[in-house]
């Protein structure tokens, strides 16, 4: 069991921000990453579509000899959170999203009890982070903003090539939030840490940022340790990447962000197979 893989998925490159933190904290674990690049973005879609896609992604990872699956995606985690899916579906393996860990961290570090949350439309609509934060401390005020274009800028690598455009879009979405009194900001979508420095700069470095990747990696390490599941392999991480489309874009971003040369390491999986495998898969909640 210890030598099995950690399965990680997202709609695209966003989950790499989680992989980066897993590599730092768990250098001997083997990771299978799936980025559903054929169907990115998930954020503007309906709950039932997001749920269907996510369950198909999980179904694929389940076939990869995994010991734990991480939804490295705020959108999927939010839809699951809202529908209380985790306990309902996943009995035969350990599954986790990212909401609780990021919310807990924000509550722990805010001094003035004003927390900003940015995420995709589905995440913000679900009120997942907000609900969790208010359960922990009802006195905290939250300010939530959906930033749908951030994912496209990142998937298109514009944040590296056209910082001017990226800064304009940051201003478009975050102008009002900047006027609020937040001292802590949750990057509620795993794509956003890729533009973390630009966001921090926009807030004149005056706020603290919560990166869900950092929190979920810490959580994963403690879960594996407590359950005696840490891989005792002496080799460095073996990471396999799978995508459902556009291998090149994925490779470029992964190469610059993770510092790994991914030539020949990214495999394309057939979306039709993914969808067909879903035919008799998990019942949907009504
Ligand atoms: N990285 C994802 C998230 O954390 C998905 C964004 C999207 O596909 O819209 O929300």
Describe the structure.
With 286 residues, the chain is α/β, with parallel strands linked by helices. The protein folds into two domains: 5-97 and 214-275, Rossmann fold; 100-212, Rossmann fold. The protein is built from 14 helices and ten strands. The strands form two sheets. It has a six-stranded parallel sheet, with helices on both faces. A four-stranded parallel sheet has the order 6-5-7-8, with helices on both faces. Helix 2 (47-62) packs across helix 3 (74-82). The two termini are 35 Å apart. The model has no long low-confidence stretch (mean pLDDT 90). The site of D-glutamic acid has 16 residues, from helix 3.
What's a concise summary of this model?
With 286 residues, the chain is α/β, with parallel strands linked by helices. It has 14 helices and 10 strands.
Largest sheet: 6 strands, parallel
- Backbone CA Rg: 18 Å
Strand order of the largest sheet: 4-3-1-2-9-10
Indicate the CATH topology of the largest domain: Rossmann fold
Ligands present: D-glutamic acid
Distance between the termini: 35 Å
Unreliable residue stretches: none
From the structure above, extract its key features:
about 290 residues, alpha/beta, Rossmann fold, 2 domains, 6-stranded parallel beta sheet, 4-stranded parallel beta sheet, about 45% helix, binds D-glutamic acid
Summarize the topology.
Elements: E1 5-10, H1 16-25, E2 31-35, H2 47-62, E3 66-71, H3 74-82, H4 85-89, E4 94-96, H5 99-109, E5 114-119, H6 121-126, H7 128-136, E6 141-146, H8 149-155, H9 158-161, H10 163-179, E7 184-187, H11 196-202, E8 208-210, H12 212-226, E9 239-243, H13 247-258, E10 266-268, H14 271-276
Parallel strand pairs: 1-2, 1-3, 2-9, 3-4, 5-6, 5-7, 7-8, 9-10
The chain binds D-glutamic acid.
């Amino acid at each position: 069991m210890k030598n099995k893989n950690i399965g990680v998925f997202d709609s695209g490159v966003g989950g790499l921000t989680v992989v980066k933190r897993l590599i730092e904290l768990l250098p001997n674990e083997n990771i299978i990453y799936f980025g559903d690049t054929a169907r990115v973005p998930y954020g503007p879609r309906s709950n039932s579509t997001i749920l269907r896609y996510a369950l198909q992604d999980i179904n694929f990872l389940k076939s990869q000899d995994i010991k734990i699956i991480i939804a490295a995606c705020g959108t999927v985690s939010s839809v699951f959170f809202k529908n209380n899916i985790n306990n309902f579906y996943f009995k035969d393996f350990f599954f986790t999203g990212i909401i609780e860990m990021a919310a807990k961290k924000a509550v722990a570090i805010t001094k003035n009890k004003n927390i900003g949350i940015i995420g995709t439309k589905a995440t913000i609509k679900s009120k997942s982070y907000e609900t969790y934060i208010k359960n922990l401390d009802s006195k905290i005020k939250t300010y939530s903003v959906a930033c749908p274009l951030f994912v496209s800028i990142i998937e298109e690598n514009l944040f590296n090539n056209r910082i001017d455009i990226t800064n304009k879009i940051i201003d478009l979405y975050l102008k009002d939030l900047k006027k609020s009194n937040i001292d802590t900001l949750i990057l509620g979508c795993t794509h956003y840490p890729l533009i973390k420095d630009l966001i921090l700069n926009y807030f004149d470095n005056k706020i603290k940022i919560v990166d869900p990747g950092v929190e979920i990696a810490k959580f994963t390490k403690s879960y594996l340790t407590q359950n005696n599941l840490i891989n005792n392999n002496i080799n460095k991480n073996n990471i396999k990447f799978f995508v459902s489309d556009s291998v090149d874009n994925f490779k470029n971003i992964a190469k610059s962000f993770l510092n790994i040369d991914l030539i020949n390491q990214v495999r394309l999986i057939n979306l039709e197979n993914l969808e067909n495998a879903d035919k008799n898969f998990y019942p949907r909640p009504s």
